[in-house]
Design a protein that fits this description.
Blueprint lengths: L3 E3 L9 E7 L9 E3 L7 E6 L2 E6 L4 E5 L6 E6 L5 E6 L5 E6 L5 E6 L6 E6 L5 E6 L13 E6 L11 E4 L6 E7 L2 E9 L3 E7 L2 E5 L5 H4 L6 E6 L5 E5 L3 E13 L16 E3 L3 E14 L5 E7 L3 E6 L4 E4 L5 E5 L7 E6 L18 E5 L3 E5 L15 E5 L5 E6 L5 E6 L3 E6 L4 E7 L7 E6 L6 E5 L3 E5 L6 E6 L5 E6 L5 E6 L4 E12 L4 H5 L5 E13 L6 E8 L5 E7 L3 E11 L3 E4 L4 E2 L6 E6 L14 E6 L3 E6 L5 E6 L7 E8 L18 E9 L1 E8 L9 E10 L2 E4 L5 E5 L6 E6 L1 H10 L20 H11 L1 H4 L9 H18 L12 E3 L3 H7 L6 H12 L12 E3 H11 L7 H17 L32 E3 H10 L6 H12 L8 E3 H9 L9
Antiparallel strand pairs: 1-56, 2-59, 3-4, 4-5, 5-6, 7-8, 8-9, 9-10, 11-12, 12-13, 13-14, 15-16, 16-17, 17-18, 18-22, 19-20, 20-21, 21-23, 24-25, 25-26, 26-27, 28-29, 29-30, 30-31, 32-33, 33-34, 34-35, 36-37, 37-38, 38-39, 40-41, 41-42, 42-43, 44-45, 45-46, 46-47, 46-48, 49-50, 50-51, 51-52, ...
């Protein structure tokens, strides 16, 4: 049930451990439950893919982890002892938990093809009833939905349900409820139909009663929720605020094939059975009463004497069984209600004061509030006294911006609802909230200034605001963009900040400090000792359209010489550096040099500055930028000449990385003032990362491709919008975007250290118990030590050490030594164990990896300057261990497959038709500052028949991009087809794959 992966992801202790979840699923009807009994005051609610048991008195959370998809259904037993959760998506689960210990008791794997949409627990807690989820891409008349009953308390080894029955009509059912007085009777409803089910022994039957608008001479709204009444009747709420009363008719014997009837819109009733159920009672709609304004999301009963209704109008109302109003709570002002739940403890009310009494109530709302109510509140006169007690506050809309305070345990959360929340994540206290008008100002990204003097926030409307962190009030407002601000970042010294917008512009602001002398006159202004105040003003310098596709990272850095610098990378495969010294109000934002194309086929997805690691003689002295790309590689670039210094295999958990953050050491503090040192913080040797979907993790530096130095786990069930690291590097904060949840993770780098150490065999020790130094070893011992050091990389080869791939690589490497010394030479051969750098591309191609010329240049530079960052030495050859690392780090994670070839033909075909393909390098900013090149959306214009004329394709191969010579092309064609030329005329992807590339398993129907 663990959702961890990679190094540091198993065992009792993880490199990342979930501590707290801010927010809950405010849109899930029935997603908040009151677990309170006589001896505890506890809630249960859903937060993304975790269940949360929240102790309101102790202010602690117990987190129920195990689901990988969003939890979409939950149920609680009447005695509050058991909790059941279920999710929707692939590899779904139903899990039953002990609500006191948080321990999973029973798990059902893959209960339905796409998971569970709704669930209820029987009155005795022994059974679960579920409705399977309908895939989102299923058509209105092309889906199957199943009702299933699960006996989770049985000790048998049954893995499936006791009963399962396909729904007879194409109306997705969204609500399911047991009859509290007869667990063998169930009601379900969708928008158009209500089904009454009865199961007994091996039989399961259902009946859809007759109803139409003619019955009540008015239109009937979509059904929302249903339940049984203690007197045997049933009710269903509608989207119009009406309640329909279902009453039993005469009894019949129903067999498979069923009885006639009708649906809500006047169609035929359906009755199905997998056997015969004696005396299945038919029901008919006898009354419709208007009891609410808007949809009724909650329809339930309490204490066998009251009906409880709540919904979009934000009120909770109680009626007796004759629908006479008994009590109402209409002053909550918490938004539309999605959940109402009651304590298992007896109501603490004086009967002499109040005729109405129910157990304590917990209400969940769509505005992300969980409110506690007592029945006695109904007696209060003042509206403020009838609003209840706020127990939990979440985010009511998507979260795309988070930022941590540079020296205090605070986190700022920006929600699309327009709210900006400031939380103390140590005390779990909401310190402050600023509410913007969401129709104009939806916060998209947020950043703290390094000295905590300002907060900058970017909005989807293109507006940028600078706020005072102590009050969240405006300091300055700028409107210089029309498109959403997608990233915002402060400089290390806090005197500049920059933004990136969705129109691919980078904008820069600079802090201006003006000294204002209180006394007038030139003498006072010239006197440095005169009393004066400092006026700080943020000045907009300008913006530059430095990319022609979306910007994926915007990062300030502090160079080794103390200079600040700013770089950005984008989907146009360019790395851009900005000249902050030359940028000004007059000249605008100036580029240091033209955009540098850094990728050939991959797309950069994230970037950060490489920390200068080491001390003394082993200290790094080269400034580098680290980028992650769509091919799961981490690449290091020299910050000055933008040459590639190293390519390593990155984490391969799920999607590519979309954010990289270095862990920062705590800043030294002044014991008298508790102020942080102004010196920029040194970095630790670790990176935190997030991927586009679900996964966050840690990497240990230096980056060398060892998979045991990285870990990842499922932090959210969907896209991860942003991450942040606390000032002390002890906490990772993650936001799930659409799940409106922010999670806190405790960082434990020691687990990652242990995982790395465990990937190597134990070193040989001397008599003192210390590891033997390499220069003290014999040649044989040195070879064994090298093999030990290479163990993680050898394991990445197919078959591992000694496997076919390893043996083939060694043979090719030694053959390359022979080639470098001359294959036919008669002179004595020198076995150096190294080959010239010029042999690297030949070795790679012999092993089945065909790098481009740019990739070959990167590999050669990587080896050439591998020691340059620490010793300044430049190499001209490579040894076998170094080549093995080079191979496993550079080769593609996924080989070229037939769909990729077909897609390439579609691109070429469409480009030829539209005359927009540019294979000669970087389009856009490289050819004209700020103008941008053609942004061709290949995916939206693919042809059904992808055909390329061979003469045109040949011309491109000979002239564009990394062009082939005519002789090279003939050699390739001869090796593939046995001929120097292909027939003139159109060439399809199928023909190219079958007759040129020779994919033997190509099938025409693919």
């Amino acid at each position: 049930m663990a959702s961890d992966m990679g190094a540091g992801g198993g065992g009792d202790q993880n490199a990342l451990g979930l501590q707290w979840a801010f927010g809950f699923n405010n849109k899930l009807c029935g997603g908040v439950h009151n677990l309170s009994t006589e001896d505890r005051f506890t809630l249960f609610y859903i937060s993304a893919h975790s269940g949360v048991i929240y102790d309101c008195a102790a202010r602690t959370q117990r987190l129920l982890q195990g689901h990988c998809n969003p939890i979409t259904a939950c149920a609680v037993s009447a005695d509050k002892k058991w909790i059941a959760t279920a999710d929707t998506g692939p590899d779904s689960l139903i899990v039953v938990w002990d609500s006191y210990s948080g321990t999973p008791i029973k798990t059902f794997f893959n209960p339905a093809p796409y998971g569970i949409a709704a669930m209820d627990m029987s009155p005795d807690g022994a059974f679960l009833a579920t409705l399977s989820a309908v895939p989102p891409d299923a058509g209105d008349d092309q889906f199957d939905q199943t009702l299933a009953i699960w006996e989770w308390t049985s000790e048998s080894e049954r893995e499936g349900p006791v009963h399962a029955q396909r729904l007879p009509l194409l109306d997705a059912q969204t609500c399911i409820r047991f009859n509290l007085n007869d667990a063998q009777e169930i009601v379900t409803n969708g928008a158009k139909h209500v089904f009454f089910w009865n199961w007994m022994g091996e039989s399961l039957s259902c009946y859809a009663p007759l109803i139409s608008k003619n019955n009540f001479r008015t239109a009937i709204g979509a059904y929302s929720a249903s339940c049984f009444l203690p007197n045997g009747q049933a009710i269903t709420g509608t989207a119009d605020g009406d309640v329909i009363l279902w009453e039993q008719a005469q009894s019949n014997s129903v067999a498979a094939g069923g009885v006639p009837g009708a649906s809500m819109d006047g169609g035929d009733n359906g009755s199905i059975a997998d056997g015969t159920v004696e005396e299945l009672a038919e029901r008919s709609a006898v009354k419709m009463i208007h009891l609410g304004e808007g949809a009724l999301n909650v329809v339930t009963t309490v204490d066998d004497k009251y009906i409880c209704l709540a919904g979009e109008d934000g009120a909770v109302r109680f009626y007796d069984l004759q629908f006479r109003l008994e009590a109402w709570f209409e002053d909550l002002e918490a938004g539309p209600i999605t959940s109402v739940s009651f304590s298992a403890a007896a109501p603490n009310v004086d009967p002499s004061r109040l005729d109405f009494s129910v157990p304590d109530i917990v209400v969940g709302t769509r505005n992300a509030y969980i409110v506690g109510l007592e029945a006695i509140v109904f007696e209060e006169v003042e509206p403020e006294a009838r609003r209840g007690t706020l127990l939990v506050q979440g985010m009511s809309d998507e979260v795309h911006g988070i930022a941590t305070h540079p020296s205090q345990p605070y986190v700022v959360i920006a929600s699309y609802s327009g709210a900006l929340y400031l939380w103390d994540y140590n005390q779990k206290v909401l310190v402050m909230v600023r509410q913007f008008d969401a129709s104009r100002l939806r916060p998209r990204c947020v950043a703290y200034e390094p000295n905590a003097n300002y907060i900058a926030i970017g909005f989807t409307s293109g507006i940028v605001k600078v706020l005072d962190p102590s009050t969240l009030e405006d300091v300055a407002t700028f409107k210089n963009a029309k498109e959403p601000i997608v990233d915002i970042s402060f400089s290390p010294l806090g005197d500049m900040f920059a933004t990136a917008d969705a129109d691919h512009h980078v904008a820069v602001w600079k802090l201006s400090l003006e000294r204002i002398v209180e006394e007038e006159g030139p003498e006072a202004e010239a006197d440095p000792m005169a009393e004066a105040t400092i006026k700080a003003t943020w000045i907009y310098l300008g913006r530059h359209r430095s990319h022609w596709r979306p910007i994926t990272a915007l990062e300030f850095g502090l160079r080794d010489d103390g200079r600040q610098t700013l770089v950005s990378v984008g989907e146009d495969r360019c790395l851009v550096e900005y000249d902050l010294d030359e940028s000004s109000v007059g000249s605008g934002v100036v580029l240091k040099e033209p955009p540098k194309r850094i990728e050939v086929s991959a797309v950069p997805t994230a970037a950060t500055w490489h920390p200068l690691l080491g001390t003394g003689a082993n200290r790094d002295f080269e400034d580098r930028v680290v980028t992650a790309n769509s091919e799961y590689k981490l690449m290091q670039w020299n910050a000055d000449n933008k040459s590639c210094r190293r390519t390593t295999l990155g984490p391969t958990f799920g999607q590519p990385i979309n954010k990289l953050l270095p862990l920062v050491k705590p800043s030294p503090r002044d014991p008298d003032t508790d102020a942080a040192d102004s010196i920029p913080h040194p970095r630790l040797g670790y990176l935190a990362y997030s991927t586009c979907e679900k996964v966050v993790g840690l990497c240990k530096m230096p980056l060398d491709g060892n998979p045991n130095k990285a870990m990842g786990l499922i932090a959210h069930p969907g896209p991860i919008s942003c991450i942040a690291v606390s000032h002390d590097s002890q906490t990772l904060v993650t936001a799930g975007g659409t799940d409106a949840t922010v999670n806190l993770w405790q960082i434990n780098t020691e687990v990652l250290d242990a995982a790395e150490a465990g990937s190597y065999p134990e070193p040989r020790l001397n008599e003192a118990g210390e590891a033997v130094a390499e220069d003290e070893m014999t040649p044989k011992e040195r070879a064994e030590a090298t093999r030990t050091r290479m163990a993680p990389f050898l394991a990445l080869l197919e078959g591992g050490e000694g496997g076919e791939a390893h043996d083939e690589l060694v043979d090719f490497f030694y053959y390359a030594q022979l080639r470098s010394q001359g294959e036919n030479t008669t002179a004595p051969r020198e076995v150096s164990g190294r080959v010239p750098l010029s042999e690297i591309p030949n070795l790679m191609r012999a092993l089945g990896y065909y790098p481009s010329e740019a990739q070959v240049s990167n590999m050669v530079n990587e080896v050439k300057y591998s020691k340059f960052t620490t010793t300044g030495e430049v190499l001209d050859s490579v040894d076998l261990p170094q080549f093995i690392q080079l191979y496993v780090n550079h080769r593609p994670i996924f080989g070229v497959d037939k769909p990729q070839v077909e897609e390439a033909f579609k691109v070429l075909s469409d480009a030829a038709a539209n005359q927009t393909l540019n294979l000669d390098g970087v389009e856009g900013p490289g050819s004209g500052v700020g103008k941008g090149g053609p942004s061709f959306d290949f995916a939206s214009t693919f042809n059904d028949m992808s055909t390329v004329d061979w003469a045109e394709l040949k011309e491109k191969l000979l002239t564009a991009g990394e062009s082939l010579s005519d002789d090279d092309l003939k050699v390739c064609l001869r090796a593939l087809t046995g001929s120097d030329e292909l027939p003139d005329g159109p060439l399809t992807a199928e023909t190219f794959i079958d007759q040129v590339l020779g994919f033997e398993d190509y099938e025409e129907d693919e």
